[in-house]
Specification:
CATH superfamily of the largest domain: Translation initiation factor 3 (IF-3), C-terminal domain
Oligomer: single chain
CATH class of the largest domain: Alpha Beta
Helix content: 25-40%
Radius of gyration: 30 Å
Largest sheet: 5 strands, mixed
Order of helices and strands: EEHEEHEHEHEEE
Structural class: alpha+beta
Number of helices: 4
Number of domains: 2
Number of strands: 9
Shape: rod-shaped
Distance between the termini: 54 Å
Strand content: 25-35%
Amino acid sequence: MILLIDENGTNQGMVKYADAKRRASAAELDLVQVSKKGVNPQVFKIVDKGKIAYKQSKQKKPAKTMVKEHRIRPNIGGHDLTVKEKACRKHLAKGHTAKIVLTIRGRERFTGDPKKSLNDLLLRLEDVGISSPTKQDRNKVIATVRPK
């Protein structure tokens, strides 16, 4: 004997499992167990499984994190670096990952410390994000900062 709830949500009381299965097939719907196994009496409901699956697929899914790229140069001005910092902070606050790319051209490689502007920006972003070790690829130095 099981406790049956019909497609309208009304309690039909205690019925035999075979009778409940027959009612579900007559209504061209499915018989779904609502209660956990081992609970006495077991509760079954007559529903459309396709409709339930559709509703579950349409439920809000967690947002995907995006990687936002910010490009800087070794001889970037102080104010420009501040603008890049604000943009990175904004993206990190939204939960996105910031990818900072330092592009080094020609003689910039040999004049002073080309990574100084990148290191300065990473220090400024220390309070809002966690930076990974920098990777160097020919004329580019790449650092990724993810939110804390």
